[in-house]
What we know:
It contains 24 helices and 22 strands. By secondary structure, the chain is of the alpha+beta class. The protein folds into six domains: about 5-65, Helix hairpin bin (Helix Hairpins); about 85-315, D-amino Acid Aminotransferase, Chain A, domain 1 (2-Layer Sandwich), CATH 3.30.470; about 315-425, CATH 2.40.50.140; about 430-505, 5' to 3' exonuclease, C-terminal subdomain (DNA polymerase, domain 1, Orthogonal Bundle); about 505-575, Orthogonal Bundle (DNA polymerase, domain 1), CATH 1.10.150.20; about 595-665, BRCT domain (Rossmann fold, 3-Layer(aba) Sandwich). The strands form six sheets. It has a five-stranded mixed beta sheet. Helix 16 packs across helix 17. The protein starts with 5 loop residues before the first helix and ends with a helix. 2-(butylsulfanyl)adenosine binds near residues 84, 116, 121, 226 and 227.
Amino acid sequence: MTTKQEIPERIDQLRNQLNYHNHRYYVLSDPEISDYEFDTLMHELTRLEKEHPEYADPNSPTCRVGSDSNSGFAQVQHRYPMLSLSNTYSLEELQDFETRNKRLLNESFEYSCELKYDGVSISLTYENGRLVRAITRGDGVKGDDVTANVRTIRSIPLQLTGGDFPDLFEIRGEILIPHEGFQKMNAQRIENEEEPFANPRNAASGTLKMQNSSLVAKRPLDCFFYALMGDALPFNTQIENLLHASNWGFKITPYINRCSSLKEVYAFIQHWEKERSQLSFDIDGIVIKVNSLRQQELLGLTAKSPRWATSYKFKAEQALTRLLSIDFQVGRTGAITPVANLEPVQLAGTTVKRASLHNADQIALHDIRLNDWVYIEKGGEIIPKVVGVEKSKRISNPELFRYITHCPECKAELVRIEGEAKHYCPNELECPPQIKGKLIHFVSRKAMDIGLADATVNQLYDLGLLHTVADFFLLTYEQLIQLDRFGDKSAANLIASIQEAKKVPFRRVLFALGIRYVGETVAKTLARQFKSMDALMNAELNDLTQVHEIGDRIAESVCHFFADARNQKLIVSLRNAGLQFAESETTPQSQALANKSIVISGVFENYSRDEIKLLIEQHGGKNVSSISGATSYLVAGSGIGPSKLEKATKLGVPIINEEEFRKLIGS
Ligand code: IVH
């Protein structure tokens, strides 16, 4: 219970939380909490503000909808504001909606029940049958003009068919990525060593905000329409509107039901709550609209949402099953993840046998014990997770679950770094999954670029042919030809590729070593600064921290790495193998970027990121990894993270695209 003094504090806290989560959802396309959790917070705030009008504030998140606006797109005002829908999570709340409609209309009425597509809303304007504009919801009043991107979506008609469409109208729909395309796209991303998207909604929203529409065209976007807007539409009901829109060429799903009672509405909801896993795309609920447009007008709007519609939101699909045992996976960095082995159970269309338990704190928080009945959830993410325990099903009193203290792979004692949720195995150099991780990283594209599949690296390790990364240079044709699926050609190619790797520049060799916190950019900074492996190895902590962008954490990690005798031995072997241990000077081509520090982000059409970085240096500039007030430009490619764009905008750092960058260097 909230006491009287605590009310303003709680209101404040809820407003802050909601603003934060709005931003994560709409701007960053990377929500931290489920819609359900978000709505619960919003409901609490709405209730508190209603009960205590003295704390009203027009800037409260209850008074406005979140914004998905992004710099880089022109802002356009919506002719009709894009409102949101009120949410309900229970059939009782729907009864309130029905009661209000009855009271306000005082005549019979019908509903149109529709799927609530889980994607990104879009508003399209058509003039004389031609698509002229596509605007995102933005803050509901103004949105981003993403016409060029939307034109690439093949299921959106650019020219309408039939002839009975109004000269000017808007149509609203939801852009989404169906499951099949999403899976293919993520598989491709993993292959390209890009971060996979957590769920189709995030993928759709990230895609729509890309700056390069030719890349958007390659993504499997689709769009379903649900509302027609215009000043003089010739039809009488929502369903008629959609049927006509379908004739003009818009994609409308057939899953729309005209219901004349709440009972029929319930049946529709219950049907789809069960069957939604059979659909080829995500839905997150059902939308219930008063069907007659005249009655919609009578009911009118509130500031945020129409009174004539509401949504029933599904909770994330859950399943209840038995926890049989817990395994502990050791990641490439030594991070330990507890994984539940479950009695197989059906969840959202697939059979689930394993689910993540996150970390020791989560197990303790839910007090999870072996043989418990646990709830699992997919919640949009790829890997299911355990979200709770059904304690009433616990029969005996099982022992408290004790978290492991030693690495399941190498038996080293685990450590827990302050402030981090996970336990780590510190035995970097002898723990098998960590060694395999290092080997795989070493040959990866941005490191030594030796074309080797992860499975082959694992096989070579298991056969005892690889112990450290230096062993790649000792592999022979005779050894390789004996591997599964290796023929004369592939063995010869691999040997050639290993020889080729000896030319890889020092900066990438340094990155390939997999020193903790030494990513691509840090490796480059170190290579530029110290110029050779010897100089770097001789550097003291102090020498390292004096370098711009090298903090204590990185400096300590580098010193720690080179202080280990096993790593020193490794360096000797790599030197003997003939790798590049010194930076070759890159001759400057111009001073066009002198004194400029430049951040690049995203994917570029004409250059790899490495090429752009090289160009910056060759024109006298400096490539830096993070944006600050001192940054001269942010060169934005497609797929750039919204947080970068936002930071640049906030700090007033000019954002330029690839073309503008080319102009800067006179290319
Ligand atoms: S009607 C006045 N119908 O849900 C509101 N919306 O919070 C008109 N959505 O942003 C919305 N499926 O993008 C409507 N069948 C459907 C929908 C739908 C998904 C989205 C819409 C909006 C959000 C409402």
